[in-house]
Amino acid sequence: MEDIIYLLNVFFMIYMFLYAIIFFFSIFFSIVDLEKFFKRRKFMNNMTLSNKLNYMPISIIVPAYNEEVTIIESIDSLLHLDYPEYEIVIINDGSTDGTSSKVIEKYGLKRVYRPIRKLVNSKDCEEIFEKAIGQVTITLINKENGGKADSLNMGINVSRYPLFLSLDADSVLQEDTLSKMVEPFMEDDKTVAVGGNVKISNSYVIENGKIIGRKPKTKLIVLFQIVEYYRSFLSTRVSFNKMNSNLIISGAIGLFKKQSAIGAGGYESDTVGEDMEMVIKLHTYCIKNRIDYNIGYVPDAVCWTQVPEKLSDLKKQRRRWHMGLTQSLWEHKYVFINPRYGAVGLVAYIYYVFFELLAPIIELLGIVIIPLSYYIGLLNFDFMVLYLGIFILYSFIVSVASITFESYLFRNTISLKMGLVLIGISFLECFGFRQLCSLYRLSAFIGYKKNKLSWEKITRVHQGR
């Protein structure tokens, strides 16, 4: 027994060292790459995008299920985007609230009849409503409830343009987001998908894609998540992007080449992690068919989204995320350590298995077993302090580096006061919040088969004044 506990302790220590090294290197390479990116952004010639005759039209697909609280704010912001040609396609996925009626009444949509070509599998359309607002056509599709993935497939079928943007119904785009996200497609025709930078809107008053003020108070649970988002979107995603091995484009915002998405078979409706599922399918589709491709990430293409403000909602979200991760990794297990898939199979997939999928199990076991080993006399005090110190130190340094770089790159979103608050939060999250999130993620394994298709709703609030 002592030998087993000793080996477990050594394993936990090695695991934490590797975790820390991976994040430190991710931050380092992210800083280098982002610095180059923003220097290029500063000095590049924008004539291509400012020329109204030179652009790629985009279909914005917004799946909506019981989103009457935020849907109008979201559409209003989309109508104010600074982009020459785009359409807005709202997919009402069998909502039981007033989502559909609110959209129809607000924008005066009229029922139309037109055929829909079934390019990818989706449930049947029940009604179509449309109207042009200025130069932007708003289309509302009412359909039987089939989930977010099925709604996105319907959006692909009904959309008119070669690129489509998947957008959550509670998300708000900045005015220049489309212009920035389309750049990789215009610069390189091998680009099949691009992700953007998701920021948390709970702290701000946002109207028409612009921050017009800050709310008086920000809940502690929101502050913890702000630090998490900075760490995620400014570290590992940037470094994986360098190797063309990103496995996730956030479901909140992603721009895709429609023909490639159709070739990959569209979204899978039997998963709650449709965002990761689509990206892995694009990788495998292109590699199997020997298509030269690129999946990118644009760090200054900003999408504002709401995060849970209640622990009950946070639990739903983290369970769903981890269940989606589990489904996608299991479905595409053939990629794991497969040289045919290059960095996708030999780097990114391994990372997601050991440092995302299994992380909550290993972290929680380590936090329990190491102090227990000390208590029963199988571990000396120095080793226990070293382990816990590494855990806290690496988390804190990575978070502070992400906050600092976020402040440097996006000076308009973090004040000095907020920056100092977030640095304090970076330290505090090591003592309870991370462990709580690990427990929520771990619960995704419990009743996996029973709950694997559930899409639990999270409470939404108005983002405007």
UniProtKB/TrEMBL annotation:
EC assignment: 2.4.1.-
Keywords linked to the UniProt accession: Glycosyltransferase, Membrane, Transferase, Transmembrane, Transmembrane helix
Residue ranges constituting the Glycosyltransferase 2-like domain according to the UniProt record: 59-112, 165-390
GO molecular function: glycosyltransferase activity
Annotated TM spans: 6-32, 334-352, 358-378, 385-408, 414-433
Pfam families to which the protein is assigned, alphabetical: Glyco_trans_2_3, Glycos_transf_2
Similarity comment: family membership: Belongs to the glycosyltransferase 2 family.
Protein name: Poly-beta-1,6-N-acetyl-D-glucosamine synthase IcaA
Species per Swiss-Prot/TrEMBL record: Clostridium cylindrosporum DSM 605
Gene that specifies this protein: icaA
